[in-house]
Write a structure and sequence with these properties.
By secondary structure, the chain is an all-alpha fold. Helix content is 83%, strand content 0%.
């Protein structure tokens, strides 16, 4: 074995060891890192509003105060309406899980009328239908724990907004080592556009889902609307994950026919919003391939838990947009993209 081969193997083993140590460190420090990542996303969302106010000669401190106050009003108002539904759902979760386990044989028995014979024991040995309810509980519990650090998150957002306002003056001292104005501006504009469009589409999706479930009289429609909003950031499979708990609850609370109509309603909403409305506002190639989405969900879910699943796609998308800025790394961004439509 040559010396260069041995060196390459040692370097590879060292890289793998460093990666494992990094993952362990991220997991150990998630109580700090997750609020920091949320602050980063919020900064990008609030940045256009702050910049719009500054263009009208509004002082930077006042512009930041306005956008932070607007965010607080929306956040507090949202959780005033949804908070009680989350509490009631978490309290009722053990009963719902028990009911799902009891009703599963009855649901499968209905399928036997159509010639489909499935053993409940076989299903339960491979699939836990109540796991969807536990996932919802874990997500909202984790979200509540993270928002308990709201003061810390907002402080970071404020500091990041001040830093972004001073970025141009600091870049002047970097000279040729600073990235070009065009590349920085392009990156920021693409990230802002992606997050704002995705947030608007997700909010509309969540609102339509809440109205649909309210119309059918399903319990906790605002909670399921919020869940649809959050999971709409996950392309391809997010809408399916968000729909499963509501459909299971419809089977328990209502009947099979209502559950079928709710399933069709979910499908129609996501087809219209995801395949018709969203592409009109998103540029071609702004997205991630299904493989990258799946890997991101598994990786960040493993590192940071259920909250990591929600943050995974926006953070991966920001990383992809950053890679697009440089000619040397653009090929990686292309590999991460969904199939491009031919002109």
């Amino acid at each position: 074995m040559t010396e260069s081969t041995t060196t390459n193997k040692n370097n590879m083993l060292l890289s793998i060891a460093c990666f494992i140590v990094l993952i362990a460190g991220l997991q150990a420090a998630q109580t700090i890192i997750v609020p920091m990542l949320m602050a980063l996303l919020l900064m990008f969302i609030m940045l256009p509003g702050m910049q719009a106010l500054m263009r009208y000669k509004v002082p930077t401190p006042l512009a930041i105060t306005v956008v932070i106050s607007f965010f607080l009003i929306i956040t507090v108002g949202l959780f005033v309406f949804v908070g009680s539904s989350i509490t009631q759902f978490l309290n009722k979760l053990p009963l719902l899980q028990q009911q799902i386990q009891q009703q599963l044989p009855i649901w499968l028995n209905h399928l036997s009328h159509y010639g489909i014979e499935i053993s409940p024991k076989i299903i339960l040995s491979y699939i836990d239908p109540s796991a969807a309810m536990r996932l919802v509980a874990a997500i909202f519990t984790g979200l509540g724990n993270t928002l308990a650090n709201l003061f810390f998150i907002l402080l970071l957002v404020i500091l990041l907004l001040f830093e972004s306002a001073d970025l141009s003056s600091k870049r002047a001292y970097l000279g040729k080592h600073a990235p070009s104005n065009e590349s920085v501006q392009s990156f920021v504009e693409k990230v802002n556009h992606y997050l704002l469009v995705k947030l608007a589409i997700s909010a509309a999706t969540g609102g339509l889902v809440a109205l649909l479930l309210w119309f059918f009289g399903l319990d906790y429609p605002l909670l399921w609307g919020l869940l649809a909003l959050l999971f709409n950031f996950i392309p391809n499979i997010g809408s399916i994950i968000a729909a499963i708990p509501a459909i299971l609850l419809a089977l328990l609370q209502l009947d099979a026919q209502s559950a079928l109509f709710i399933t069709l309603g979910y499908s129609l909403i996501n087809i219209i919003m995801g395949n018709i409305i969203e592409p009109k506002f998103m540029a071609q190639g702004v997205g991630l391939s299904t493989l990258i989405v799946f890997i991101s969900l598994i990786f960040w879910g493993f590192v940071f838990g259920p909250i990591g699943m929600l943050l995974s796609i926006p953070l991966t998308m920001i990383a992809k947009l950053a890679l697009e800025v440089s000619e040397q790394s653009r090929w990686i961004a292309v590999l991460m993209s969904p199939p491009l439509q031919q002109p």
